Amino acid sequence: MAKVLVVTSGKGGVGKTTSTAAIGAGLASLGKNVCVVDFDVGLRNLDLIMGAERRVVFDLINVTQGDAKLSQALIRDKRIETLHLLPASQTRDKDALTSDGVARVMAELREKFDWVICDSPAGIERGALLAMYHADVAVVVTNPEVSSVRDSDRIIGMLDSKTARAEAGQRVDKHLLLTRYDALRAQRGDMLRTEDVLEILSIPLLGIIPESQDVLKASNVGSPVTLADPNSPPARAYMDAVRRLQGETVEMSIPSEKKGLFGKLFGRRVA
Amino acid sequence: MSLFNWFRPKTTAPVARERLKMVLAHERVGNTHSQLIAVLQEEIIAVIAKHMQIDRDKVSIKLDKGDEVNTLEIDIEMPSQLAQV
Q1: What is the dihedral of CA B73, B74, B75, B76, to 10 degrees?
Q2: Is A173 exposed, middle or buried (0-12, 13-18, 19+ CB in 10 A)?
Q3: Cα separation of A87 and A63, whole Å?
């Protein structure tokens, strides 16, 4: 039974696309058949983060409008056979995306894949609503920072009211992914702690991704961080999150560089 | 400021937490508030319309959120001949 997952946040720049690529590649590396879908029409970037920017021929809009078949638009990853990308259109307007068209494509994707991961655009407008509408599971990406937490709260409200599941009286399975977390600054009292954010948003925690240079390095070379350097702290944190998504119980920790006193002191400290 | 505080500089995360709690407490009821105002407006107009003719466009209802109390302001313009009766 296919699962549709939306990666969303409200606020821009918190790590939706990075997380989509990392989680998608992580699930695929465990043998799952995965498609990552870019819903950010006009500002597509998932292709770049996945390293597939030169292989885009058709896109989501072409498929929703019947100008291309889904199989023609899907780009198979060169590193993992079971990982696929459905890119967004870069030239079209976001209004070109219709709810009927999206519904048809999502139904077809559900038949082909184990996981369909939708990378939502920022904001709370049409594009974000279309990206979340068909979701069974939501990953709310949040930075430990006031504006991000506020916007996440707003998005959680929309997941509870504006999705197909909500309309049918069911619930979207919501998870919090805390990104760009700096355990040392939280310890010092100058960054919201995990438990602060959890208390305010009151949805279960999927993972804590530490602030790391490895994320930028991976995006520089067009590789999901979980593939670029699987032993890096963010990659390990994402893989833990991926296992939790699959229902495994994984002890919550914040992976750190395995050197130095800071890592020993704070690396394992969690909410 | 005590000596203790002097050694431990004030941290900012607790301030962030309190500010967030405050703003979200307001915003979470925000949606129901706007519905509440619409319902109140309809019902108040219905009650007044039983006794006199009023222009629906001349009814304004405002909700003002203060720190401690919220005020509901209802402003109804009545035709002057009716008011004098």
Answers
A1: 180
A2: middle
A3: 10
Note whether A146 contacts B: Cβ–Cβ < 8 A: yes
- pLDDT tens digits for A14-57? 999 999 999 999 999 999 999 999 999 999 999 999 999 999 99
Residue whose pair of structure tokens reads 């302001």 in the numeric block: B73
For A238-250, the pLDDT digits (tens) are 999 999 999 999 9
C-beta of residue A41 within 8 angstroms of C-beta of residue A69: no
Interchain contact, B20 vs A190, CB within 8 Å = no
Least CB–CB distance from B13: residue in A157, A190, A200: A190
Measure in Å the smallest separation between the Cα of B12 and chain A Cα atoms: 5
Terminal-to-terminal C-alpha distance of chain B: 66
Interface contact B19, partner A, CB < 8 A: yes
- Chain B contact set for A153 (CB, 8 A): 24, 27-28
